[in-house]
């Protein structure tokens, strides 16, 4: 329970506070602070704006980054998924559920485990071969969460993906140059059509041009976001960015928007 002792002392804006824990035999109970908006998995069923999705992505990334780079010893989460990203009253993302978390020395590259941790659709491919958990494995799992945010799809939906999964489907679509078709239709702006009351034709035309330009920039930003997520879910762990780099890329995306 060393992990729980450590996590109980950690305070960060993007981590759900662990208030207490107990263990009886093989049963473990973790007590967290209540998050009024529930989990990301639940709110993805609603229509979230692009700004809201970016905010959630940044928050989840910051929380995981803190575990990887600011905690001593470092912490590998091992079960990053949308149901473990909770939302507080300000819709700020907070990483939760540390039941599978493990401490790792800054000098170690991995931890060898006897059983496979994680949830289907989020587990990095190398875990099935090596049973070694790494920080880059967490990066992959977060990448799947980021893909959920931009596509609006669940990681393992046979109706959408057949024999593959969300990651495989997105990679296939991008190879075919269909990046826009990957993006959640609810996020894609529509062109302004029809007349507007109390506007002359010239003013209406100027407003339409401005809105179309703004919409085009937003779509470009979504494509750039998609590129970041694909780096996170690269098949090769060594090619994935670390969490400091992920946070920096998402921050830059927000600055340039």
TrEMBL record:
Residues 1-255 form the Protein kinase domain. InterPro entries: Kinase-like_dom_sf, LRR_receptor-like_kinase, Prot_kinase_dom, Ser/Thr_kinase_AS. Residues 194-204 have a biased composition (Basic and acidic residues). One of its GO terms (molecular function) is protein serine/threonine kinase activity. Its EC number is 2.7.11.1. One of its GO terms (cellular component) is plasma membrane. Gene3D superfamilies: Phosphorylase Kinase, domain 1, Transferase(Phosphotransferase) domain 1. Residues 205-215 have a biased composition (Acidic residues). Keywords: ATP-binding, Cell membrane, Glycoprotein, Kinase, Leucine-rich repeat, Membrane, Nucleotide-binding, Receptor, Repeat, Serine/threonine-protein kinase, Signal, Transferase, Transmembrane, Transmembrane helix. It is an enzyme of class 2 (transferase). Residues 187-218 are annotated as: Disordered. This is non-specific serine/threonine protein kinase. The lineage of its organism: Eukaryota, Viridiplantae, Streptophyta, Embryophyta, Tracheophyta.
